[in-house]
Design goal:
The structure holds two protein chains of two kinds. Chain A contains 13 helices and three strands. Chain A is mainly alpha-helical. Chain A has a domain of about 60 residues. The N and C termini of chain A lie far apart (about 80 Å). Chain B has a single domain, classed as Orthogonal Bundle (Arc Repressor Mutant, subunit A), CATH 1.10.10. Chain B contains four helices and three strands; from the N terminus they run αβααββα. Chain B is globular. In chain B, about 15% of the residues are buried. The chains are: A mainly alpha, B alpha+beta. At the A-B interface, α2 and α4 of A face α2, α3 and β3 of B.
Chain lengths: ~325, ~120
């Protein structure tokens, strides 16, 4: 391989495979043209001449970069939505971290300020995990052209400043809302189906990680229904993102999904406890004055209260949506 | 950015703006990259090789140019020429360019009617 071929090959290593051979051939041809002109001008072309020409052409990585279109991990179209989703994810993780800390304080697992650095360390690990998953998810979205098309189409829509004078459009759906909902639902699908063991509260006992509480069989028995609801939710949000507005059909679909969710939550509420507390482990860890059984019952009571609130909120949402549908007829 | 750098970047932006029209206008007849580079340079427009070749590929992917490989010396060369849509684009750009030049001449002469 001569000097020119080496240089051209080096440029090629920085190029995508589908463009490589074509650009390499043209670059080689252009270098030979430069040398040919030097010969015509009466110069003797030596290795030193070739080296000088290659030096003038520049660093192979820079030459290759000039052929590449702008390439983003997360492009300007998706970046604002990414930041919104990230803020939401960090908020959710912070809320969960506070609940876990409260539980650990309640059972006497965290009793002194000296144990806080460990909790803060765990919290930072979660934050980094959310950041990592967020970047990966949006990097994948960036490479799915329909997602970008929906975002671009939204921005290229004709805009009339007179709309600023009108009342806020209640039917308009900001694009970030369905995209973020899809991402969080996808994460839930993956976590609850592939990594269900991570949905747990744990503690470190004698240097080992022990599970204090996790989801019970009563919860996982309903997993097929929960999965069905999440899949339908994703489809629902895809349709919302596509239309960019609430329509009669999407409002009724929303009501149906809320009712489906209420039915699942009510079944969980009426059934056995969905939090399985590992009493043996809890007894070993529990240094508070409250018995482990009382702590276990309190935890399940709190979860039941949360499910009750969720059902109440969903009922209000259903009521509001039905009212909106009929008040417009 | 220093004032000098600002001026340089302004001049660069101006030149960048005219390169597409300059390149298209010189490719009414088939030319290979290096001969185009020399022809532009002889007419006073210096373009870096690293700018010209990617630009030629971009214009081809936009359908304004078409290319083919030919062997007319000791090595093969890729020849470019404007396509039918390229010719239409040149006509449109020329018209716009004439308008811009007239407007800028008026503005730079301080004869834009704004001065009382």
């Amino acid at each position: 391989m001569n000097l020119i071929e080496r240089y051209v090959h080096e440029v090629g290593t920085h190029l995508p495979a589908k463009l490589r051979s074509d650009i390499e051939a043209e670059l080689q041809s252009s270098i030979l043209d430069i040398l040919e002109e030097k010969r015509r001008d009466g110069q003797t072309v030596t290795d030193a001449t070739v080296l000088q020409v290659l030096k003038e052409l520049g660093n192979p990585a820079k030459v290759a970069a000039s052929y590449r279109p702008p390439d983003y991990l997360i492009g300007p179209e998706l970046y604002p939505i990414f930041i919104k989703a990230l803020k939401l994810g960090l908020f959710v993780v912070s809320a969960i971290a506070l609940v876990v800390l409260a539980v650990r304080i309640a059972i006497g697992d965290v009793t002194s300020w000296g144990q806080f650095p460990e909790s803060i360390g765990t919290y930072f690990n979660w934050l980094i995990a959310v950041l990592g998953y967020g970047v990966v998810t949006f990097a994948v979205l960036q490479r799915i052209s329909p997602a970008l098309k929906v975002v671009s189409r939204e921005r290229e829509k004709e805009w009339d400043p007179a709309e600023l004078l009108k009342k806020p459009d209640a039917d308009k759906i900001p694009l970030s809302s369905p995209i973020i909902a899809i991402i969080f639902t996808l994460w839930a699908l993956v976590v609850f189906n592939i990594f269900p063991h991570v949905v747990a509260i744990g503690s470190v006992k004698d240097g080992n990680w022990v599970i204090l509480a996790s989801l019970s069989d009563a919860f996982f028995r309903l997993m097929p229904f929960i999965n069905a609801m999440w899949v339908l939710l994703i489809a629902f949000h895809v349709v919302r993102a596509y239309h960019g507005r609430w329509r009669l059909a999407t409002r009724w679909a929303f009501v149906a999904l809320q009712l489906f969710g209420i039915a699942i939550t009510a079944t969980l509420l009426a059934g056995p406890d969905i939090i399985k507390v590992n009493l043996d482990v809890l007894n070993a860890v529990n240094t508070s004055n409250v018995s482990s059984e009382t702590l276990s019952n309190s935890l399940n009571l709190i979860v039941r209260a949360i499910m009750g609130i969720a059902i109440a909120v969903s009922c209000v949402e259903v009521g509001r949506t039905v009212y909106r549908v009929f008040s417009r007829k | 950015m220093s004032p000098n750098e600002s001026v340089e970047s302004g001049i660069l932006a101006l030149r960048r703006g005219v390169i597409v029209l300059a390149v298209l206008s010189q490719l009414q007849e088939e030319q290979y990259g290096y001969s185009l580079l020399k022809s532009l340079s002889n007419k006073g427009l210096e373009i870096d090789q690293g700018t010209l070749y990617p630009l030629l590929r971009r214009l081809e992917s936009q359908g304004l140019l078409q290319s083919r490989w030919k062997v007319d010396s000791d090595h093969p060369r890729r020849y470019y020429v404007v396509s039918a849509s390229g010719r239409k684009a040149i006509a449109q750009m020329k018209e716009d360019w004439a308008g811009i030049v007239a407007l800028m001449q008026k503005m730079l002469a301080g004869d834009d009617g704004d001065t009382a």
